[in-house]
Amino acid sequence: MSKVVYENPLAYESDIRDFILEGKANISFDEGAMRIDSKNLSPEDQKDGCVLWCPVSFPSDVKIEWVFRPLEEPGLAMLFFAAKPIESGKDFFGSDMAERTGKYRQYYNGDINAYHISYFRRKEETERAFHLCNLRKSCGCNLVAQGADPIPDANPDSGWYEMRIIKNKDVITFLINDIVILEYEDDGRTYGDYLTGGYVGFRQLSPMIAEYRDFRVTWL
User: What is the pTM of this model?
Assistant: First the structure.
């Protein structure tokens, strides 16, 4: 039987008081949603983006849900999941781990393993012309699945989109508004061993502005 193990409306600043921000971003709360805005940071601070981690380590087989809307582009929105240290026994947020400051390479080629799905990619001109969602497996930046991105370009009047990742044993399914975007079956060999439980982190690349709400994790 499925069981909700974590639920967070992301509606007020107090909802993320225990979250861990790596990199820099302006995070605000307006009309019951969390807004991540990097537009007004310095060019140096905009360069690397940010990752906002939920401080809870989740089980292996889960459904991860959140609601998203993009307000300004260019930029990129991504979710890390099943993230944990490569070396067992280490604290994911501890001082014995390599420093993480929002630089992408630190997350896919450092001392952590994770899946990450980039579900809104409007960074380069080619990405803005041809919209794809990418699922990658780390360590390494291994592209394991792709699917068409149905979300229109960002604008201040963007609607909300229901995002869902289902990680059930060795199969990962990603849906937007109940539409299956991609599916991947991990054989546990081609790109390393199976990734089980771990942390979830929201990544956003500058100078994008986007809002998030209704984050929920269900144990399958």
Answer: 0.95
